[in-house]
Design goal:
3 domains; alpha/beta; about 35% helix; 25 strands; single chain; ATP binding; M1 Pyruvate Kinase, Domain 3; Pyruvate Kinase, Chain: A, domain 1; seven-stranded mixed sheet; eight-stranded parallel β-barrel; TIM Barrel
Length: about 525
């Protein structure tokens, strides 16, 4: 495993710790994904989350119906218009998630050192001695001594709402388990997780396909989070399914790594996926707790070197019910940034948490502080070394733009792009200043109608660390035939000034195509 310790080598001034954090238009270079739900679906709350730094809205289809999520999305659209802040849409599939069904809705108390039966017969009522489940193959998948976890909020680590079972015996289709801790389960559905056992169910379920082909297509989702990704073939299968849904093939697929299978096949999954989400709650059950950080560091490093966005989950669970994170959680967020995370994903904290806006704001502030002590010089050298020689043309331009920007202490890098690839390559080298990605729409046709591309590319970069997109006027060409065409550049500079990133007398590095050549130029601004 490659070591990737990125704290600054020189000592940090102790006095700087006492200085208050400075407010900024960009709360942090690291992006924040917020899960929208019961506590965060009003126009007012979503607007405040966007202002606080949320740039991707996650819709979790492991619960809630299409109508509920559609209503939430309409509120998001209203909030985006009122705040004038772009926001990407992420659809998170339910995947092959095992569940206990409690049709009575009465709380179920489970006592330690007693036994409970897991049965696939969902017609039976859930009791303290019997729990119906939605999977007929559990008895064939487990053996005596295996570990099973059950809970409504299973992966928060709260032992009053989740229970740890040990398989005692298998009787036909039923599984008899010994209860290891007392807990009370409330609600209608509880997640069931079997540690280190393969569940013979498709990664993209029929329910997932229905949601994608209806709600997903209707709303042009930007990112598909593929839950329980276990093999590269899962990504290929999902991409094939999306390709049959018209223009939906533009949607990026992020692999959600949640178990030992996904970890084992991580390298091949990374080759196929557009990005990776590390579901640390689930991984923390499949892996011994002392091993989770090792996988995080090794996997984030691999994502960084390939220039693919990496998203870390489960960072400030305590903020679901509290206004402040624990000291350990705050340190964990900072370490995720130093390890190379592109984004932090907030789940229960914003979905059902009491303080969704404060959570987004707090995580953004921690990320911003961690970025100040990120060793960009060391990271840059490692990335260049990993790319090797000879570099590709685009890679050479991207690394040169970042090197120039750092040497001249530029306040921003402006990159003109149509596909978004050039801007993502620049962001791969983790410049210390924002990368303003000017996405130039292209006119395209399916032989029935003409449309402009660009909106997808702009929104999809909202999950990439340090990349801040703007959609340009389609009448402005991305490729100038001469150096005199500066209309798009003026728009980009004005955008940077309006957002407070660019000030008079600042230097700005511009990455642009002139005819057949790609150029990097340094501008020194006047008043």
């Amino acid at each position: 495993m490659n070591s990737n310790h990125l704290l600054l080598e020189e000592p940090i001034r102790m006095a700087s710790i006492l200085e208050p954090s400075k407010p900024s238009f960009f709360p942090a270079m690291t992006k924040i994904v917020g899960t929208l739900g019961p506590k965060s679906r009003s126009v007012e709350i979503i607007s405040d989350c966007l202002k606080a730094g949320m740039s991707v809205a996650r819709f979790d289809f492991s619960w809630g119906d299409i109508e509920f999520h559609q209503e939430t999305l309409e509120n998001l659209k209203t909030a985006v218009k009122s705040t004038r802040k772009l926001c990407a849409i992420m659809l998170d599939t339910g995947g092959p998630e095992l569940q206990v069904v409690n049709k009575t809705e009465h709380p179920i108390s489970l006592e330690a050192d007693t036994k409970v039966i897991l049965t696939p017969d969902q017609d039976k009522p859930a009791t303290s001695n019997l729990l119906p489940i939605n999977y007929h193959g559990l008895s064939k998948a487990v053996k005596k001594g295996d570990t099973i976890f059950i809970g409504q909020y299973l992966f928060t680590g709260n032992e009053t709402t989740s229970v740890w079972l040990e398989v005692d015996e298998v009787c036909s289709e039923d599984v008899v388990c010994l209860i290891k801790n007392s807990a009370t389960l409330s609600g209608t559905l509880y997640t069931l997780h079997v540690s280190q056992i393969r569940i013979d169910m498709p990664t993209l379920t029929d329910k997932d396909k229905e949601v994608i082909s209806t709600w997903g297509v209707r709303n042009n989702i930007d990112i598909l989070s593929l839950s329980y990704t276990r093999h590269a073939e899962d990504i290929r299968h999902a991409r094939c399914f999306l390709s049959k849904l018209g223009e939906f093939n533009q949607t990026q697929i992020f692999a959600k790594i949640e178990n030992i299978e996904g970890l084992t096949h991580f390298d091949e999954i990374l080759q196929e996926a557009d990005g990776i989400i590390f579901s640390r709650g689930n991984l923390g059950i499949d892996l011994p707790p002392e091993k989770v950080f090792l996988f995080q560091k090794a996997a984030l490093y691999k994502c960084n070197m390939m220039g693919k966005p990496a998203v870390v989950t489960r960072v400030v669970d305590s903020m679901t019910d509290n206004l402040r994170p624990t000291r350990a959680e705050a340190t964990d967020v900072a370490n995720a940034v130093l390890d190379g995370s592109d984004a932090i994903l907030l789940g229960a904290e914003t979905l059902r948490g009491l303080y969704p806006v404060e959570t987004v704001s707090t995580v953004g502030k921690i990320c911003a502080e961690a970025e100040k002590v990120f060793n960009q010089d060391l990271y840059f050298k490692k990335t260049v070394k990993n790319v090797g020689e000879p570099m590709s043309h685009l890679e050479s331009i991207a690394s040169s733009a970042v090197r120039a920007a750092i040497k001249v202490k530029a306040s921003a890098i402006i990159c003109f792009t149509s596909s978004g690839r050039a801007a993502r390559l620049i962001a791969k080298y983790r410049p210390t200043m924002p990368v303003i990605s000017v996405v130039i729409p292209r006119l395209k046709t399916n032989q029935l109608r003409w449309t402009f591309s660009g909106a997808f590319e702009a929104r999809q970069s909202l999950i990439v660390r340090g990349l801040f997109p703007m959609l340009a006027d389609p009448r402005h060409p991305a490729e100038s035939k001469s150096g005199s065409n500066e209309s798009v550049l003026k728009v980009a500079l004005d955008h940077g000034k309006a957002s407070g990133v660019i000030k008079p007398h600042d230097r700005v590095v511009v990455c642009q195509k002139l005819g057949d050549a790609s150029v990097v130029k340094i501008l020194e601004l006047e008043d």
